Amino acid sequence: MLVPLRVTADPDPGFEVRISPAPIGHVVAARIQGSAHSVVREPRQITSRDPDLLKVTLHRGGSAVVCQNDRRERVRPGTSSRWTPPARTN
Questions:
Q1: Is the pTM higher than 0.70?
Q2: Which of 40, 55, 30, 46 is nearest to 8 (CA)?
Q3: What is the pLDDT of residues 18-65, one digit of tens each?
Q4: Distance of alpha carbon 45 from alpha carbon 6, whole angstroms
Q5: Are 59 and 76 in contact (CB under 8 A)?
Q6: 17 to each of 14, 47, 79, how far by Cα in Å?
């Protein structure tokens, strides 16, 4: 999973999330279900010790927006998104 990160949500009606990871060798598949929220991974949270990652999602419900650098992608049910973490710092 891509961590550390910051999750924020509207306190009303409250935030709820379920994460069910399943490691498969060097790959982690996870089912993530939750109420509306925002996830941010800020540059200061990225270090040279972070592993090389490629994140692929299959979006099954609701809508989402994925932003990285100057790119912005709207994700709807039945679509996928792919992204890599930003360059690491030392």
A1: no
A2: 40
A3: 888 888 888 888 888 888 888 887 777 766 666 677 777 888 888 888
A4: 9
A5: yes
A6: 10, 26, 21
